[in-house]
Specification:
Number of domains: 6
Strand content: 25-35%
CATH class of the largest domain: Mainly Alpha
Structural class: alpha+beta
CATH topology of the largest domain: Transferase(Phosphotransferase), domain 1
CATH superfamily of the largest domain: Transferase(Phosphotransferase) domain 1
Length: 866
């Protein structure tokens, strides 16, 4: 019996090793282990018998892989084979793989196989920047792995090798330094050498004064402050001290808050219990491990008005010769709590309140005083916000001598005067109140109105024909619901000249009339009229839906969507209404400043500030799980304050946190801005946007040069896989290039986040000495790319505009639509919409490369189908 059981067990084992029959599913081929060098291709195979059309899915380390191009090869009846291929294997592709089949509600799995990636060492722990006090010891850590193993680590400090090789991971003990020092580590194995990022040892110092101190909100008696930390001194800020002082009407100052520490972050504070309608000024200093920073400059503000808190006192009445005189104490300062509009005097006669009288001064004189006798009088002070409490009533007592007929006539005239004055004064007061409250509703009670690109809201009802037209475009119900509350009637838009045209549409200047009858200058982006497919319209409007909820000073935000009805067309053309970006796109702006008739040189601080604006905008988008996929200088816009805003979300995608997006359909993508892993496998993540940001930094530092000069688009992938990267621009500081280069790590997770990039660039910006104010204003004046019709002064703008070739309409077909002509002007595109290049003739040459001139061929930064 025991022998029979052993024989049966042996048969089962042999059957499992030969064909793995599990129910009705048989794996006739299992994936086998593969070892490949980094950059080479790897393919795993799996074959299954049994199902008619099996659903075979590849699994890596327990997670299913979805591939849009997976193929099945029929080996026979109910016999299928499939493969998983990696075109250029990287360290992140290493792991355990197997295939699974879902059949009749059950899941069957093949035997697993391993992909092992051999190459130069891969860093799992790169040395990080260190901030330390002078002479204080610290440790540096570096770790790398193969295969192949073993891996040894060598340290370099200040360009000098420190000690000998040590097994990975390695910890280097540094006794202490007294100045800034650069360092890195080398990792070696049998395949070669890898060099880590270059780290920096910083010496901790006192922080710089905070910047950007402003009043964020005035609410009642409280004021909310916010500020940005200055240079932190390479040490984390622990607290900030807020000082507040009040200026008295006589010119003296009183310190209200002498300085109380506020824990940071956030860099904000609320100061309670302030007096209304008073002048205050505030300043802030911050502390780190070393000590306190200098205070920021005093920032003044005025608290909001309020109704008076007290009633006028000392009300007296005096009757003489038929005249009645009233006097009361004047309200001032904290009791008044605003600007006095009038004093309101009211009579109470026979228990009934009479129509009040208004007086500017704290006294009044009335004829026909006897008409007010046997009544009581009270008075109240009024500001633009409202009136304060009433004073205690004072009775009007008649004089001892009786009046004659002339006094009676005086009473009559006083009554007539009262009847005429009361309605007029009431109407005047009502008009003043209405004007003040209307102004407050538009711009707030105290602060002046700030320019904004907030979305315009337009009321709708269920029967609105615009909503019906939106539903007729064939877009999804979800997209329809997202856009209907920002739908703008066509009658409110007045279209102007064309700002730019691309492959899919055009951008025009326009005027938008808002609900309160104001006119706002905007840019209108529209599809070409011949692009009638619902898919093109859906993608075009989905970009608008992305922008609808954006609220950040460095990200373009949607104002609204409008439907423009066209002659002899059944369906309207959708247009997207965006803020007007006066200085156009960042690439053209920088290019014309470098190649125009009058060259404009920007300081390194200004260029880094452009990069910082882009990093902050991308930090905001990445925090909302948006991947841009087309980040470049051409898709960043400059508003009239020279702030850069990230724009053109035509290729952007919303992803789940921690997820990635794989490009499955045919699309046009800019090769020279695409990350290495995206070129290999069409995978896009926030880290691939970081790669594109590094290329954008390079564009800014080179003032609009085309990336990878001399390298064709078809050669980019092989160029990058060899470890080549964009070279340091001639006028680029090493610290800036280090940040730039960190964005191009072949391992996506080793690239810095946008939050980290914003911190690094802010520190770099503060480290550069700012140019004097008059030099900055000159630079910006010369690079003014506004249209000629705006009447701007300064020859520099005209010189730069003449560097751009006009867009001359030759036929109606080339112009796009018959009533949307292309003006022969030198304006540059105000809103991005693709990879545009309008500069055709620079430095007196066309089509060639003259001295000091970059040729702008179509292939320089062309897009390819992937």
């Amino acid at each position: 019996m025991v022998g029979l059981a052993l024989r049966l067990a042996l048969v089962v084992v042999l059957a499992r090793d030969t064909c793995c029959v599990i129910g009705d599913v048989t794996f006739s081929r299992h994936p086998s282990n593969r070892t490949a060098s980094q950059g080479n291709g790897v393919r795993l195979g799996c074959a299954v018998e049994g199902p008619d059309e099996p659903d075979v899915v590849w699994v890596k380390d327990g997670s299913r892989l979805r591939s849009a191009d997976q193929m099945f090869i029929a080996l026979g009846e109910k016999h299928w084979e499939t493969y998983h291929s990696v075109k250029s294997v990287q360290q992140q592709d290493a792991g355990q793989y197997w295939c699974e089949v879902d059949f009749h509600g059950r899941t069957f799995a093949s035997r697993p196989a391993w992909i092992t990636v051999e190459g130069v060492p891969h860093f799992v722990l790169e040395p990080q920047d260190v901030a330390t006090l002078p002479g204080e010891p610290f440790n540096l850590t570096c770790g790398a792995v193969g295969p192949p193993e073993p891996v040894e680590v060598l340290w370099w400090l200040g360009g000098v090798r420190e000690g000998g090789a040590a097994p990975s991971p390695s910890v280097l003990r540094v006794a202490g330094v007294n100045g800034t020092l650069k360092f890195y580590c080398e990792a070696r194995n049998a395949r070669g050498i890898s060099v880590s990022r270059t780290g920096t040892v910083y010496i901790k110092e006192l922080p710089a004064a905070p910047v950007g101190l402003e009043v964020a909100e005035l609410a009642g008696d409280d004021v909310s402050l916010s500020w940005q930390p200055g240079f932190t001194g390479h040490s984390e800020l622990s607290a900030c001290v807020v000082q507040l002082r009040r200026t008295s009407p006589g010119g003296g100052t009183v310190v209200v808050f002498p300085g109380s520490p506020v824990q940071v972050p956030p860099h904000a504070s609320v100061l309670p219990g302030l007096s209304r309608h008073s002048n205050y000024s505030v300043r802030v200093a911050c502390l780190n491990e070393v000590g306190a920073s200098p205070f920021s400059a005093w920032t003044g503000f005025v608290t909001a008005e309020s109704a008076p808190s007290a009633a006028p006192g000392n009300l007296t009445l005096d009757s003489s010769r038929g005249r009645l005189s009233l006097r009361w104490a004047e309200l001032r300062g904290e009791e008044l709590r605003g600007e006095l509009l009038a004093y309101k005097v009211q009579w109470i006669l026979g228990g009934e309140q009479q129509e009040p009288l208004l007086f500017k001064d704290p006294w009044a004189r009335l004829s026909g005083g006897r008409g007010f006798f046997n009544a009581s009088v009270r008075v109240s002070a009024c500001t633009a916000v409202g009136c304060g409490p009433w004073s205690a009533p004072v009775a009007a007592v008649p004089a001892a001598a009786a009046g004659d007929r002339s006094v009676e006539r005086d009473h009559l005239w006083a009554g007539v005067l009262f009847a005429l004055l009361a309605p007029t004064a009431s109407a005047l007061l009502f008009s003043v109140f209405a004007r003040r409250r209307g102004k407050e509703r538009r711009s707030g009670p105290v602060l002046p109105p700030a320019e904004t690109d907030a979305a315009v809201s337009f009321g709708r009802n269920a029967g609105d024909p615009h909503l019906s037209a939106l539903g007729s475009l064939g877009i999804s119900e979800d997209l329809n619901n997202q856009l209907k509350d920002v739908l703008i009637p066509e009658r409110l838009l007045t279209l102007g000249h064309v700002l730019g045209k691309g492959e899919f549409g055009s951008v025009r200047e326009a005027s938008l009339k808002t609900d309160d009858s104001r006119v706002q200058k905007v840019a209108v982006k529209a599809l070409k009229s011949d692009m009638a497919s619902s898919g093109d319209v859906e993608q075009f409007l989905r970009e608008a839906a992305h922008m609808k909820d954006f609220h950040h000073p460095n990200v373009i935000r949607l104002i609204g969507v409008s439907l423009r009805r066209r002659h002899a067309r059944r369906l309207p053309v959708p247009v997207v209404v965006l803020p007007f970006m006066r200085h156009g796109d960042l690439h053209t702006f920088l290019l014309l400043s470098r190649l125009g008739d009058r060259r404009v040189d920007f300081s390194a601080g200004v260029l880094v500030r452009f990069m910082l604006d882009v990093a902050r905008g991308m930090e905001y988008l990445s925090a909302r799980n948006i991947i841009h996929r087309d980040l470049a200088a051409r898709n960043c816009m400059l508003d009239e304050n020279m702030a850069v805003r990230v724009a053109d979300f035509g290729l952007s995608k919303k992803i789940n946190p921690g997820d990635y997006y794989r490009q499955g359909s045919v699309a046009k993508l800019p090769v020279k801005w695409i990350a290495l892993e995206s070129l290999a496998d069409n995978v896009y993540t926030t880290q691939s946007d970081v790669w594109a940001f590094g290329v954008t930094m390079w564009e800014v530092m080179t003032r609009g040069q085309t990336p990878y000069p001399g390298v064709e688009n078809s050669e980019i992938y092989e160029y990058l896989i060899r470890g080549e990267r964009l070279k340091k621009p001639a006028e680029c500081a090493q610290d800036v290039y280090d940040v730039m280069h960190s964005c191009w790590s072949p391992v996506p997770k080793c690239r810095p986040t946008f939050r980290r990039l914003a911190v690094l660039l802010e520190e770099l910006r503060l480290s550069f000495s700012p140019a004097p104010p008059h030099e900055q204003s000159e630079s910006f004046r010369y690079v003014n790319l506004a249209g000629a019709g705006e009447g701007r002064e300064g020859n520099g703008a005209g010189d730069l505009r003449r560097a751009a070739s006009p867009w001359v309409r030759e036929t109606e077909a080339e112009a796009g639509e018959g009533d949307w002509p292309r003006p022969a002007s030198g304006a540059v595109a105000a809103i991005g919409g693709g990879d545009y290049r309008y500069v055709e003739e620079l430095g007196g040459t066309r089509g060639g490369r003259g001295p000091g001139v970059d040729r702008l061929d179509d292939d320089d930064d062309a897009v390819v189908h992937v």
